[in-house]
Amino acid sequence: MIIKFQKDLLRGDTVLIYDKRKTILQEIPNFPELNKLFKGRLKMYRNCTIDKNGILNIKEEAKGF
Prior knowledge:
mainly beta; 5 strands
């Protein structure tokens, strides 16, 4: 699935993740590894999977969004 990651402009220490097809909307901490993936941008789209334990696995960047 493709998930949109967007930095929370009101609280700089969190990131909003959103997938309208799966109705996922969640706020997660902006940890250093995730911050590196943003490369200075405010939002990005990434291919992701959720494993059987409910852990979000962030994959490569989705192009064309």
